[in-house]
Predict the 3D structure of the following.
Amino acid sequence: MPAGSQAIAERKAIRELIRAKSDREIARLLRQSYRVLNLHRRRPSTISHRERWTDYEIRLLGRIRDEELAKLIRRGVTAVAGKRESLGIAILAPQRIRWSKREIELLGKRSDPGVARMLGRTRYGVQLKRHSQGVSRCWDGARPLTRAEEALLERCVTGSWPRH
């Protein structure tokens, strides 16, 4: 048997013997603390924290969200955020889409959720824009007032409400 293959066979036999023994027994045989031994038996991380950043990875910082970039380049989110901050690169903020005149004209003509679906915006965003423009809410589903309700409303507005 060649020397290289013999060394491989010996290592394999040693691994099998070690697998058969408990961690505490191995620690006793090696005259090591169980805790010290256990530290060395932990699985190594798949990602080295000391790996250098490539130019490609650095160019991506701030262009996509930190979470997405971390998955893409197989680094931690905190590592990506830390590197971006250390280089003074601003966090990615989605560009705000300006409101066109046609979009603003829709405010108050339909319900906020309806306008939001039409424009591909959030309901809250539509509501904020409507408030900032001073446009009142659309009452799409509201029923028309009855004659009695209109008369009552008229009396309230004109001040001819009976006083007690």
